[in-house]
Amino acid sequence: MIDSKKIAVVLPAYNAAKTLEITYKEIPFDVVDFVILVDDKSQDDTVEVGKKLGIKHIVAHDENKGYGGNQKSCYNKALELGADIVVMLHPDYQYTPKLIESMTYLIANDVYPVVLGSRILGKGALRGGMPFYKYFANRLLTFAQNLLMNQKLSEYHTGYRAFSAEVLRAINYNQNSDDFVFDNQMLAQIFFAGYEIAEITCPTKYFDDASSINFKRSVKYGLGVLGTSFAYRFQKWGMAKYRIFQKSAL
Does residue 2 belong to any structural domain of this protein? Predict the structure, then answer.
């Protein structure tokens, strides 16, 4: 805990057996109260590795629900268990768990309600092996998103995020896509609800076992990102209404 706030780390996993242990062992348990592993019907022994590590809260999907569907299970379970702060960490070891303390202290001390680990602040992305085409697409999409949503984030595409439970209850994340665009819909919802988002510099690693999506799905993701940003702007202008921006029932 930090200032009596219960902290949960959620691990949305798919075929993460090779990297789960090294990720888990770097989690700072002096501040983290519990870990939730949600396995999206992996084809490897991710669940068995989680059990051997002693993870008490494991959710195993009976069918593959997708990246966004996995996160919905993560956040729903964390809120059900009474977490005050929830950190979403990929178990593929692409992001270092060593930043969890810094991210959660900002939330626990009421400085910001949401904190992102940004690969773009500084020079960590390219140095960590991010392919240049992905870096270029990240910068282009982020520029368009900042313009459409009148914000100044360095990137919208990081998978390393920390939220206060208040924010998770306020936004309607269960209405979001089950695909990769879920992440961007969530940030749009947070801004639409009037919350601020902080960023800290995050080193990253790209290697064979780190999760990635192919070119076709990357194009689909990019179009979904732009669609989400336009939906945000149209609803702000009162030109349309979208379910993702409705108030949550949580």
Answer: no
